[in-house]
Amino acid sequence: xxxxxxxxxxxxxxxxxxxxxxxxxxxxxxxxxxxxxxxxxxxxxxxxxxxxxxxxxxxxxxxxxxxxxxxxxxxxxxxxxxxxxxxxxxxxxxxxxxxxxxxxxxxxxxxxxxxxxxxxxxxxxxxxxxxxxxxxxxxxxxxxxxxxxxxxxxxxxxxxxxxxxxxxxxxxxxxxxxxxxxxxxxxxxxxxxxxxxxxxxxxxxxxxxxxxxxxxxxxxxxxxxxxxxxxxxxxxxxxxxxxxxxxxxxxxxxxxxxxxxxxxxxxxxxxxxxxxxxxxxxxxxxxxxxxxxxxxxxxxxxxxxxxxxxxxxxxxxxxxxx
Length: 322
Ligand SMILES: [Zn+2]
Description:
Blueprint: H1 5-8, E1 10-11, H2 20-25, E2 32-34, E3 40-44, E4 47-50, E5 56-59, H3 64-69, H4 77-87, H5 95-104, E6 108-110, H6 123-131, E7 147-150, H7 156-168, E8 181-187, H8 196-201, E9 205-211, E10 214-217, H9 229-239, H10 243-247, H11 264-283, E11 292-296, E12 303-307, H12 315-321
Helix pairs in contact: 7-11
The structure holds zinc ion.
C-alpha cells in the first residue's frame, strides 16, 4: 500500500505571515541558496515543492518562482533586492522577509557557510555538515592537514583508494613528508621496525593490516598517550607463547606470500573506514581506533572491534607516566 504523499511531505502553510521581529533578527548579509540537492517543483496550481524526500511544500505567490530561481548562493540579499525591484515587480512582499522565512523553513540555506578563506575544496563537505546541523567551521583543519600513507606491494591499491577519498574530503596533503598522521598499510603483519621511527618522533600512526580475508585497522597510536603496537604484541604473547618468536619473522616473507582473499567491495569498505579515522584525527573528533582495533571483512559490511589496553610491561606506559 502506498503511503499518501500528503502525510509525509512537510507543508509550510503559515509561510509569509510575516513576523517582523523574527525576520529582522536573522541578519541579512547572507547569500541565499536553494536547499542542497533539492529540485524546485510545481506541486499544484497554488503550491510549490522543494525536494522530494519527502519535500517541503510552500504556498506559491506571484513572482516567487522567479525569485527562487535567482538563489544561486553567489548573490547576497542586497543584490537580490536590487534585481527583484527591476525584474520581478509582481513580488509585493519584502524580499528579505521572504528569504528569512524560507530559511527558517529549510528551503533556503546560507552559502557563505560553505566557502570562504581556508575552506577551498570543501564545499561538498561543508554543505553536508550544514545540512546535518553541524558547524562547517569544524572542517577548517583539513586544508593544512598532512597525512602520509605508506604501503607495500600487496596493499598499494587500498592505500591509493584511501588517498583518493581523503583528497575528495578536502585533506590538503595526502602524500606528506612531514605528516600529522602516518598510516602504515601492509599485506600481512608488518615488521615491527616500521613503528620504531614514528614512536621515536612522537608521530601519531595508524596500522592497517590486510590479514587473509579481512582488514584490521588500529590501534591508532598517539605515542605515550594511547596503547601502542607493542602493547598489542605483549597482550598477544600473554596467550600465545610463540608470538615473540613469530614477531621477528614478520614482514620478511611477503614476496612468497599468496595474495590476500579480499574482494573489491571489502577493499573499498576498509579504505573508507581508514578514511573516516583519518578525517576524525584531522578534525579533532574522537577516533574509534584509539585503544581499539576495528576489523572489516570478510564481507564488505562485516565489522568487529575489540579493546586494547596499555600493557603493564610496555615502555610506552612508562613514557606516559613520566
Ligand atoms: Zn605500549
